[in-house]
Amino acid sequence: MLEDVMDKLIQADTFLVLVYHPSPAIQRGVIKLLDAYFNRASKEQKDKLLKNRGFSLLADQLNLHQGTQELLECFIEVFFGRRIGLDKEFDLEDVKNIELFQKWSVIPVLGLIETSL
Fold it and tell me: Which top-rank group of organisms is this from (predicted)?
């Protein structure tokens, strides 16, 4: 049933457009939905997003708004696959063990940092 919904009703491209909303609360919600989508997406769906430069498009959308700490924490959760606060230290071994797709999620983080400094 999940296969019937993914890419037919729920598409990553739609989330990329929705994140443009000026409300940080809506942006956080969309990022959390994207994270749930990524966790359930097939390799082909993830590859399609990478091929279409989805993380760069996401960074471009977010770059037009002021970033917030909460939004940054959402992306850190996507990156690590678990919740980590900005005030917490993380083990560099965790970064080495992250799959390639998750490593690409650092691109929007860089876009957020640019507008938040």
Answer: Eukaryota
Bridge partners of residue 52, in order along the sequence: none
Give the model confidence (pLDDT) of 59-105 as tens digits: 888 888 788 888 888 888 888 888 877 777 777 787 788 888 888 98
CA gap 31, 115 in Å, rounded: 17
Phi, psi of 98 (to 5 degrees): -75, 140
pLDDT, residue 6, reads 60
Spatial contact of 78 and 34, defined as CB atoms under 8 Å apart = yes
Q: Which residue has the tokens 């956080």?
A: 28
CB proximity list for 16: less than 8 A, separation 6 or greater = 54, 57, 58, 61
For the chain, which residues make up each domain, given as ranges?
2-116
pTM: 0.81
